[in-house]
Write a structure and sequence with these properties.
8-stranded mixed sheet, alpha/beta, 34% helix
């Protein structure tokens, strides 16, 4: 935890030189049994907005959720977002980069939904240009979910790839990737030229960890598991991260720990 605190203290010491890239589920928010059961602490949206103001707008959300869902979770605030693992993006100036959906993918989505209904405990999530099957409520269904998703990936005709996560398998556009999304943000204002800090909790976040550290920045992996990571530091839980970010918001520039 000490290493993570030291990384985040950089924001307090030099907010004008820092940029923050945050995953949502399992990072800012505690994992829930189903995607719709997620709980957003009442104060979190305003705290993120205050944090963004402190960093001159250099706070982006990099998530597997769709941009529309992120906006619903964090209303009334709108942030720069890389949604669907970077397949869709809202840039700081409000411009959108949208994912293209093929007829094959729509057919696969419909069939997968129907077949998933026959697997008790498996939750189908329609993300628009991506699909997810969650098996947190039925861990014994992992083999069934893997088989269904592998078949679905083939049926899309090659435009979508599989992404394993925590008790979830996603079918996402092949051009997506959180590392690629981070590179896109880092190339434009207000992120360009700043020290990147990437924070996430899962295998899907390792790409942005690698990009941030290669650029001379840092990365923090959330969670108490022992999974290998290229992150610079670890932090035990989303609760700890929210507490540390809240402390950054409360302190004026120059009053850090260092």
């Amino acid at each position: 935890m000490a290493a993570a605190v030291e990384i985040l203290s950089m924001i307090e010491r030099e907010p004008g030189r820092s940029a923050l890239y945050l995953d949502i589920d399992g990072t800012l928010l505690d994992i829930a049994p189903t995607p719709e059961a997620i709980i957003v602490p009442r104060e979190l949206p305003d705290q993120l907005a205050e944090l963004a103001a402190k960093l001159g707008g250099a706070v982006a959300l990099v998530t597997g959720r769709s941009i529309a869902r992120v906006d619903a979770l964090l209303q009334p605030h709108l942030f720069p977002v890389a949604g669907l693992h970077g397949a869709e993006m809202r840039l700081p100036d409000g411009r959108f980069i949208e994912a293209t959906i093929s007829a094959d993918f729509l057919a696969v989505k419909e069939e997968l939904h129907a077949r998933a209904e026959g697997l008790e405990g498996v939750v189908f999530e329609d993300k628009g240009a991506a699909i997810a099957l969650h098996y947190r409520l039925a861990p014994h269904r992992k083999g069934d979910v893997d088989a269904l998703m592998e078949e679905a990936a083939v049926s899309t005709g090659g435009g979508w790839i599989l992404q394993q996560g925590k008790m979830v398998v996603e079918l996402k556009p092949v051009q997506s990737g959180k590392g690629r999304a981070l590179e896109e943000f880092m190339s434009i204002a207000p992120f360009r030229g700043r020290w990147p800090i990437a924070i996430g909790d899962d295998l899907t976040d390792e790409g942005m960890f690698a990009v941030a550290t290669a650029a001379g920045g840092a990365a923090i992996r959330i969670g108490d598991d022992a999974a290998p990571t290229v992150a610079s530091a670890r932090l035990g839980s989303p609760t700890e991260l929210r507490r540390l970010l809240a402390s950054v918001v409360r302190r004026p520039p120059g009053n850090g720990h260092g």
